Amino acid sequence: MTAGAAPDVWLDLPEKAQRRTILAIARKELDDAVRSRWFWMWTVSFAGLAAVLAMTALPASRIAGAASYGRTAASLVTLTQIIVPLMGLTLGAQTIAFQRENGALRFLLSHPVNRTESFWGLYAGKAAALTAASFAGFGTAGVVTALRSGGGEAGSFVRITLLAWALLLAMVAVGMLISTLAHRAPSALGSAVFTWLALVFLGDLGLMGTAVATRLSVPMLFFSTIVNPVEAFRLAALATFASSFDILGPAGTYAADALGAALVPVIVSSLLAWILVPLAVAWFRFTRHQDL
Amino acid sequence: MTALLALILGLAPLLGAAPAASDGDLQALIDAAAPGATIELPAGVYRGDITIDKTLTLRGTGGTVIEGTGTGTVVTVLAPDVTLEGLVIRRSGDSLDREHAGISVKAPRVKVVDNRLEDVLFGIFLYQSPDSVIRGNTVVSKDLFIARRGDAIRMWESHRTVVEGNVVDGARDVVLWFCDDAVIRGNLIANGRYGLHFMYSDRATIEDNALIDNSVGSFLMYSKDLVLRRNLISGNNGPAGYGVGLKDMDGSRLEDNLLVGNRAGVFLDNSPQSVGIEQTFEGNLFAYNQIGVLFLPSVKGNVFWGNSFVDNTVQVAVQGGGRFGGNTWTRDGIGNYWSDYAGYDADGDGFGDVPYRLDDLYDHLLDRNPELMLFADTPASRALDLAARAFPVIKPRPKVRDDRPLITPPPVPEPPFDLEVRPGGSLLAASILMLGVATTTVFAAQRRRSLP
Questions:
Q1: Looking at CA atoms only, how far is residue B78 from chain A in angstroms?
Q2: Does residue B445 contact residue A31 with C-beta atoms inside 8 Å?
Q3: pLDDT by residue (tens digit) across A115-130?
Q4: pLDDT at B226 over 50
Q5: Residue whose C-alpha is closest to residue B228's, from B259, B193, B273, B190
């Protein structure tokens, strides 16, 4: 069967059958991920680092109370900022490009499934595996914090976890987009690493340089910052435990003042856009180009 | 009510007070009392507002409430040596310009002890009342927007006054104007605007207080020779959230204070203001603040030794940049502990062998471009510092140089109050749930393999 002939027929199937197909592909993808060394490397290193952070932040909590939770949370946010995009992007980028190269994609599409189902199944499977990895990390850090310091703010912690999860979904989406665009597996991986570098370091450094060199206005600086999903995650996470955005200096004071109650929704919507837009583009590209 | 009146009427002669007025009016009771008498008030609600114009002791016996009309000051004291003790005083008016208060005192040597003031605009107002004592009171302000509230304790030209063991929650300020030689000890002041505000009040001793979650911990201005010792100053995070702000001060001494989680631990504006006067900071803990110590560029003459600087986002900052110097970070061969010190102690004498230098490029940029605070604590700002270290050609002039940095932090001073620790139960439950989700996902994948 050639891949090009099938789609229209299969789209006519009842929705339930389509959902079952997606689920089956997702399970297969999850199974593959859980059995891969990458997955365990990320899970163990994230959980380990998170636990170490939660432990080292403890000695002062006796005197500092909530302030030391703030430092634990801030460290955890920094760790997440570095690791979650890296694992999301690299594993996301490995999905289609790698399967295209080793023939797995050809094998998958030789079954009675269409490209749309394959795409969403692959994304769901990858996302589920990485969700497990990130929840394992946050769960470990949370248990350590709760047991050793006794203190902590469950509401803030859960919200940070959910924001990290949203960041993860966005990064897997961007990874999938890279994966559909790349011609070869190594170039997909390379692009993923470069994207990570750009989001985590180069974007911020560029903004800092621009702000200093051109006296960028404070509103411009703030909005250019939250366009970056990694920064959107950090600022939204900060809002869950910082007493006020004033701690971010003039830009924070401006944002809290100008946006008021809409502050967190605006930041989070940037994060959600980074899930939806790359997925839409990747899906479009994957279904339109019939390459194997 | 009649039983209550009978009780008052019955007790009054026993206690040497004049016979009470027939309608049980507290004001009448006071008017009828002989100067120097003690009036014990059994539990019950007494109508205010009252004025005490002779030396008296007014003592509650638990559950004694004096309720104001809501249009003025509830208890006004005009005579010296009055004692107010064990009373619940509530419902003052809410006019800021008429300074409606729970207790307003305009006479020397007054004692205000173990009272509870609630729903009042100002709490305790001392006006030209030297040698007074305010001890063990609780003040809860009216629930208004913070600038519309009154001061929990306001003192004006009341020298040598002792303010001790009071609890203030959700008022505006605790403020002293022109009050020399005050003692402020063991108070808990939380959720207000200025925890402590000093104006032109010299030689005060401020010790063992907790100033928590106010907009500003303490702002001390135009005063000389203040001693702050063993205070816990934490979570003061307003736009000017200084743990201790010093403006035009001379000769302040800060010892063994805990400055934790404030916007800036200490803020120095033209302090010391006189040439040749120094201010000393010894044995304090600066931890988890956004900025440990914040200087204006021209400030000099401060000496820091034996302090711990632990994980402040920026350890020392100079607002606005400019030529900065003239402060000392070592005394008698003892420096400070810096959590970001990267040196070593090869000879094992407890001091680092290379000086601690604060010359982070990001901090330096921040001094001139405060809007870059948006990037504090990001991987990018750390990368910048790393780059500056790797390529010294872009390394800025150090702001701080401590030649004898301590290798281990000095012991943390004991906090004056036990802070409540939030129970970790719900966090534990949430975390276990997350681990559960992770495990289930992994096992769901594993189980599939056993299917045919």
A1: 43
A2: yes
A3: 888 899 999 999 999 9
A4: yes
A5: B259
Assess if residue A253 is contained within a domain.
Answer: yes
Give per-residue pLDDT as tens, B317-373.
888 766 788 899 999 999 999 988 988 999 889 999 999 988 888 888 887 888 888
Q: What is the CB neighbour count within 10 angstroms for residue A108?
A: 20
Query: With a CB-CB cutoff of 8 Å, which residues 273-312 of chain B face chain A?
Result: 285, 287-288, 290, 310-311
Residue A2 — very low, low, confident or very high, per pLDDT cuts 50/70/90? very low
Min Cα distance B45 → chain A (Å) is 40
Of B374, B380, B426, the CB nearest to A205: B380
Residue B342 token pair? 């990267």
Structure tokens of B350? 């407890």
- What is the residue-averaged pLDDT of chain B? 87
Task: Give the distance from residue B317's alpha carbon to the nearest chain A alpha carbon, in angstroms.
Answer: 13
Residue A81: inside a domain = yes
Instruction: Measure in Å the smallest separation between the Cα of B375 and chain A Cα atoms.
Output: 7
Which of B288, B373, B422 is closest, CB to CB, to A249?
Answer: B373
Q: B56: part of which helix (H) or strand (E)? A: none
Range of A31's domain? 12-288
CB pairs under 8 A between A and B: 206
CA B112 to chain centre: 21
* B residues 212..251 contacting A (CB < 8 A): 213, 232, 234-235, 237-239, 241
**Lowest-pLDDT range of B229-233, B292-296, B388-392:** B388-392
In a domain? residue A229: yes
User: Which residue in the set B376, B379, B448 is minimally distant from A31, CB to CB?
Assistant: B448
| Domain total in chain A | 1
Give yes or no for residue B125 having a pLDDT over 70.
yes
Q: Is residue A2 part of a domain?
A: no
First-residue to last-residue Cα distance in chain B: 86
Helices and strands (DSSP H and E) totals, chain A? 14, 0
